[in-house]
Amino acid sequence: MQNSNIYNSSSFFETEEGAIDAHFTDFSNITCQRSWLCLKRVKRFGQWWIVKGVNPQFEPRAKAQKMLDKEFERCMTLWHPSIVRMIAQQEVPTMEGRCIIEEWVDGMSLDAFLATEPSVEVRQDIASQLVEAVRYYMSKGATHGNLKASNVLITHNGSRVKIIDFEPESTDRQADFAALATLLRGLRLPRKFGKVIKRCKRGEYPSAEVLHHDFVDVVKSNHRRWLLPTFVAVVAIGAIAATFLWGRQRQQTDEKKLPAGYLVDSIAPAGASTIFSTVSNADIYWMSFDSITPGNIPDNIAVDLGLSVKWSKMNMGANHPSVNFVGSYYAWGDTTDRGQWGGLDKYWPENKAMPTKPISGTDIDYARRRWGGKWRLPTQEEWRELIDHCDWKYRNAGDGAAGYVVTGPNGNSIFLPFAGWSDDGINMTDVGRFGYYWTAKPVANGKRMAYYVLLDEGKILADQAQTVDRMMAIRPVQ
């Protein structure tokens, strides 16, 4: 087996396209409101990052460094799509002391975003992301301490929330509730959210979990009212109750709690299209750099887990030299030879009707088009079967290959890496942090959206929705 360890201390990664520089380059200053901090945007491994260090003009420097260390210790364990991810802490050339390395967010502040006059649907979606993010970090025992519009970024692509700049010494949960209420009020939500916002502002919620529950109930109430005109009062009340109970049961299924801490030894990736490790009978594949898995994929990579379909041992394709175990990224329903981002109108223009039924096995199913044979995109129901009837064990060996070993009722296993997502088919986000996998099901609301599965450490969500131009991983089935 030929080793090609891309996680060593070498300054460059050699690829067919040249060298990927592991040094920090292209430093540019970023304005910072906290005088003791110095923020710079830098490039490394061909991607942009934020480096946060101590301002060399600040005194006492030792106290500032201690605050920075404490911020890193507090936030390193927060892994959530709506919270900026801290990657590491290390010394960086031209910077003072130990610096925090965190993801670069291509977006704008919440107040700047609101000035663009987004629709009420977009504002409500942002509110849902904020409430969920606060619920998450409070469940981890953290508080923000400075939750305001300038510390909430909205990505240019997909309007996704990213909360930044946690105060290292904050412990006041009620201050966070009050700040969240101010943000929700600034989003100009429909009147039905008024009671929740007032309770949040007054500090009447015993926990963020209860706040989140009430907020979700208000969101669902809109769908329940939509059904009322078609039924008489008694039938409508029964339908509402049934919908409510179904939603609760589905939420419990989708947020299935999973054990964490499943570890194996760190092993260097292998050469092109070969297995580098087998963990609990699950083959983990490292694909060659910048390759696309060819068509007519053999049936012997289909794993029988004892379910209604067989699942592939690996994701489709591979296209990035620095972290290459995750496969390629594809827009939903994309029929081009390879998914290169071109905006929403490229894939589903306004004058092109979205499908109303799952596209699995159809002519716009990229897994069928690319792999051939009986391969196809999994349906949402097949993902739920995988979630409900298999044993899931989290794996993170520290070599970048974080994800889940999924073992079926018959003892066979597959590995699902935390593949992240991309907005252009080249630059990747959340790799090693979260898994984003397309299902074949469109969102039945006339919008250009489809459902995907989100994998997190300890939780799976099978009812997530995103615009079809978001590029995610595909795990084919037969």
Oligomer: single chain
User: Can you tell me the number of structural domains?
Assistant: 3
* SSE-based structural type: alpha+beta
* Strand order in the largest sheet: 3-4-5-7-6
Walk me through what this model shows.
This protein has 10 helices and 22 strands. β6 and β7 form a beta hairpin. α4 (173-186) runs antiparallel to α5. The protein is globular. It has a 5-stranded antiparallel sheet with strand order 3-4-5-7-6. It is an alpha+beta fold and 478 residues long. Mean pLDDT is 75; it is low at 1-20, 223-228, 250-281, 284-296 and 318-324. The protein is 26% helix and 23% strand. It folds into 3 domains: 12-103, Phosphorylase Kinase, domain 1, CATH 3.30.200; 109-223, Transferase(Phosphotransferase), domain 1; 274-467, no CATH class.
Keywords:
478 residues; alpha+beta; Phosphorylase Kinase, domain 1; Transferase(Phosphotransferase), domain 1; five-stranded antiparallel β-sheet; three-stranded antiparallel β-sheet; 10 helices; 22 strands; 26% helix
Would you spell out the secondary-structure blueprint of this structure?
Blueprint: E1 12-15, E2 18-21, E3 25-30, E4 37-44, E5 47-54, H1 61-75, E6 86-91, E7 98-103, E8 107-109, H2 110-114, H3 120-139, E9 152-155, E10 161-163, H4 173-186, H5 194-201, H6 208-227, H7 233-254, E11 274-279, E12 282-286, E13 302-303, E14 311-312, H8 344-347, H9 366-371, H10 380-389, E15 391-395, E16 403-407, E17 413-417, E18 421-422, E19 428-429, E20 435-442, E21 449-456, E22 459-467
Antiparallel strand pairs: 1-2, 3-4, 4-5, 5-7, 6-7, 8-9, 9-10, 11-12, 13-14, 15-16, 16-17, 18-19, 20-21, 21-22
Helix pairs in contact: 3-4, 3-6, 4-5, 6-7
